[in-house]
Design brief:
Structural class: mainly alpha
Number of domains: 2
Order of helices and strands: HHHEEHHHEHHHHHHEEEHHHEH
Number of strands: 7
Shape: flat
Length: 412
């Protein structure tokens, strides 16, 4: 009877283990690219009809604009009549990243039966399941991207295919690789070989970065709320119909993550530029002529900011300290040294991560002075490491003292 049960279990599990790795991973990568692409194409067609009721051009023009938007989300940029626009709509990039993460997790789960088991991996046996799957996932993704870039190019416009390939590779390494490792169960096995202080430091970094991005988004929304009248004036100057206004609003929504990163750079102190020879920071605001883009209504007035804006630079270290305390309250440190390493190390990693995100938030936004738009990344890197590192260190030590004090009182 036992042998029958074992045989039945093996027959049930064998189809899962026999799934072809190359096919599953390649199809997963292609599906991760196609899912948001189809959404962009559909929105492009709807926007084309809404903008002029189909009076000009053909539906394929709307499809092409949707494909171009998807490619710009992968860093392709676009050049029209010699005018380059290289700012990445990170809102669309976020949708593509979510699709890649979900499909990568599904690929990992589908391939969990491949390769050696946990005991054999612990014994040191080489396991290439995840690297091979990531390579095939990237191959499926980049093939779709290159084909779309080739079809979307025209005589009037040009797109950068190498940048699309590099962005696809970076997203595969940053998103698909961890998702496949988690879905296949390899991440849980490999985590046992990593020291606990490193794992807790990484978790602290995620908590700090998440809290600061949330704060940056709130500050931007509040600023945009104060400038809602100016945003309405911009839209009235464009004389947009209902359909055109909807397309205009979607275009602005695609850059909301960019605005959040600009807001975070402002809070850290260095600020950002909106055109050549401009500066938006807590210390000074120098602006020039701006395009009619609704999100720019959140910019402060030119001149020397008030005392309230100058005090905003204290928010990043405060948020880092509070996020570290919140995490360490749930996961107490065993020693003072471990608490300090968690807080300071996690803060430094969070600072580097934010600077990396800020580096892709800007770019070329048009001709002339608008070729320089974005945060001052080197200064943002130094400020983020300092603010998050010191804030994380202070929060970790305060929480460690509080927990030790509570433990002594309980013992007494």
């Amino acid at each position: 009877m036992t042998s029958l049960l074992v045989d039945r279990r093996d027959r049930t599990a064998s189809p899962r283990a026999q799934r072809p790795l190359v096919l599953i991973a390649t199809l997963g990568g292609a599906a991760a690219a196609l899912a948001p692409l189809l959404v962009c194409v559909a929105v492009g067609i709807v926007g084309w009809f809404a903008a002029d009721a189909g009076a000009h051009g053909a539906p394929r023009d709307g499809m092409r604009m949707g494909a171009v938007a998807w490619l710009m989300a992968h860093g392709s940029g676009i050049t029209v009549g010699g005018v380059a626009v290289g700012v990445v709509p990170l809102g669309l990039t976020t949708i593509c990243a979510w699709s890649m993460w979900r499909l990568g997790h599904w690929v990992g789960d589908a391939l969990s039966g491949h390769g050696p088991d946990a005991d054999r991996i612990s014994d040191g046996e080489r396991d290439l399941t995840v690297p091979v799957a990531v390579g095939m996932f990237f191959l499926g993704y980049v093939v779709v991207a290159v084909v779309v870039a080739t079809l979307a190019a025209s005589v009037e416009t040009s797109l950068s295919v190498p940048r699309v390939v590099l962005w696809s590779l970076a997203m595969s390494l940053v998103l698909a690789a961890p998702a496949i490792a988690i879905g296949s169960g390899r991440a849980a096995i490999w985590a046992t070989f990593v020291p606990a202080v490193v794992r807790q430091g990484a978790a602290t970094a995620i908590a700090i970065l998440t809290a600061f991005l949330a704060l940056s988004a709130v500050v931007f929304v509040v600023s945009l709320g104060f400038g809602v009248g100016e945003a309405a004036t911009m839209m009235s100057q464009l004389h947009l119909e209902v359909g055109e206004g909807t397309v205009y609003a979607l275009a602005n929504g695609g850059f909301l993550p960019n605005a959040t990163l600009f807001s975070g750079s402002f809070l850290l102190g260095p600020g950002f530029a909106v055109g050549g020879n401009t500066l938006v920071s807590p210390g000074a605001v120098v602006l020039g002529p701006l395009p009619l883009f609704a999100l720019l209504a959140a910019l402060p007035d030119p001149g020397a900011p008030g005392a309230l804006l100058s005090l905003l630079v204290w928010l990043p270290p405060l948020v880092a300290a509070l996020a570290t305390m919140w995490w360490q309250r749930r996961h107490p440190a065993l020693t003072w040294l471990e608490a300090a390493l968690r807080g300071c190390g996690g803060g430094i990693v969070a600072g580097v991560a934010f600077a990396a995100l800020a580096s892709v938030a800007g770019g070329t936004a048009g001709p002339g002075r608008m070729r320089h738009v974005g945060p001052f990344v080197p200064d943002v890197l130094v400020a983020a490491i300092t603010a998050f590192g010191l804030g994380g260190l202070l929060g970790a030590l305060v929480m460690a003292w509080w927990q030790r004090r509570g433990a002594l009182q309980s013992a007494e």
